[in-house]
Amino acid sequence: MLVKNWIVDFFEKHRARFGITDWDAPGTEAYRDQVRMMLIAFKTHDVNEKEANDASLALGMVPPRFRNDHIPALIGMITDRRKPKATPDVQEEFHDCGYCEGAGFVTVYHRLYNGSRTIELRNKLLAGVVTAHCNCTLGRQLRARTDPETVLRMPDLADVISGRSRYLLDDPCGKPVAAAGPDKKKAGRGTP
Ligand SMILES: [Zn+2]
Fold it and tell me: Which pLDDT does position 87 carry in this prediction?
């Protein structure tokens, strides 16, 4: 359907949804001009009615503050929503990562790891071996999608490498990673 056939309905629905009271009254030239501005923006970006409605609803999370912000906010939301979302297929691209080999996760060791699964520190039991998010693109994406509580418990490989973490990339009581055989992985895939 042509934009001009649904724009007025949409305009009214959007205006009611956000309680925009300072837009000009229907029937006035200023009102028609405002609708025309939205029409031009939508035509320029080839927006369909469903996209416009979905974007209007999604703006509920980030309501525009001023009346002149609504059109750019709608267009911004629509173009954002058009971008393809990262899917697990992207994993193919990351097989070359030297740390995780495309898994997105890397095994890391607590500084005090001594070969046993747990470490007692100030009367608290800590895991000696945990899984960290890799610092490659896939690892970043996985971390971004992980709930905040889990993120707090899972080390970030970037911190481990830079020494900001209490975890180490190499097993402190074993051999360096380069010398470790295929066993390292099997032994390492623990839960945090
Ligand atoms: Zn990686």
Answer: 59
**Average pLDDT per 10 consecutive residues for the chain, totaling 192 residues:** 93 90 83 93 96 93 86 93 68 73 91 88 88 92 89 92 93 61 44 47
Which residues surround the ion ligand 1 when the cut-off is CB under 5 Å? 97, 99-100, 134, 136, 139
User: What's the 97 CA to ligand 1 centre distance in angstroms?
Assistant: 5
Q: How far is the CA of 118 from the centre of ligand 1 (A)?
A: 26
- CA 150 to centroid of ligand 1, rounded, Å: 19
The reported pTM is 0.46
**Residue 183 near residue 127 (C-beta atoms within 8 A):** no
How would you label 131-163 residue by residue, b for 16+ Cβ within 10 Å and e otherwise? Answer: bbbbbbebbbbbbeeeeeeeeeebbbbbbbbee
* Residue type (1 letter), 111: R
Interacting residues of 36 by C-beta distance below 8 A, sequence separation 6+ = none
Candidates 108, 112, 111, 100; CA nearest to 129 is: 108
Strands of the chain, DSSP E: 105-110, 118-121, 124-127, 129-133, 167-168
Q: Are 105 and 142 in contact (CB under 8 A)?
A: yes
State how far the Cα of 120 lies from the Cα of 55, in Å rounded to an integer.
Answer: 51
